[in-house]
C-alpha cells in the first residue's frame, strides 16, 4: 500500500491509501501521484516539477533553492506572526504567568511582581 495524491491544477485535492492495482483499475491514474517524498503531503500541497511542496503559507512567500517557503522579510528572533496585509512581522509578547497560587487572604488586593516572582499586596501606588 502507498499514499496517492489526487492532483488537479498542480494542487493536491485528496489523499488515499491504496495499492497500485486498485489505482490503475478504479481511478484515472494520470490524476494520481504516488507519494515517494520524505516529508508529509497534505491537502493543498503543490506539485512542481514532479515534487510536492507544502502549501504556500502566504501569497507573498516564495520557494527558495531548498524548496522551503520564505517570507519577503526574514523572521525576527523569538515568536512572531506574519501579517500579509502589511507585509510585516508581528512580534508576539509572552504573557507573564504567575507561578504561585493566588493568596487566600481576600481582605487585600494582590498583584503579581514578576521581578520577584511572588504575589505582593497592591497598595495603590
Descriptive report:
This protein is mainly β and 125 residues long. The protein folds into 3 domains: 55 residues, no CATH class; 37 residues, no CATH class; 25 residues, no CATH class. The strands form 5 sheets. A 3-stranded antiparallel sheet has the order 2-1-3. Strands 4-5 form a two-stranded antiparallel ribbon. The longest helix has 7 residues. 5% of the residues are buried. The model has no long low-confidence stretch (mean pLDDT 80).
Give a nutshell description of this structure:
By secondary structure, the chain is mainly beta. The chain folds into three domains: 1-55, no CATH class; 58-94, no CATH class; 101-125, no CATH class. It contains one helix and eleven strands; from the N terminus they run E-E-H-E-E-E-E-E-E-E-E-E.
Task: Write out key terms for the chains shown.
3 domains, elongated, three-stranded antiparallel sheet, single chain, mainly beta, 6% helix, 125 residues, two-stranded antiparallel ribbon
SSE-based structural type: mainly beta
Number of helical segments? 1
What is the count of structural domains?
3
Q: Tell me the strand percentage band.
A: 35-45%
* Topology, number of strands: 11
Summarize the helices and strands and which ones pair or pack.
Elements: E1 2-8, E2 11-18, H1 20-26, E3 32-34, E4 46-48, E5 51-53, E6 62-63, E7 69-70, E8 80-83, E9 88-91, E10 110-113, E11 118-121
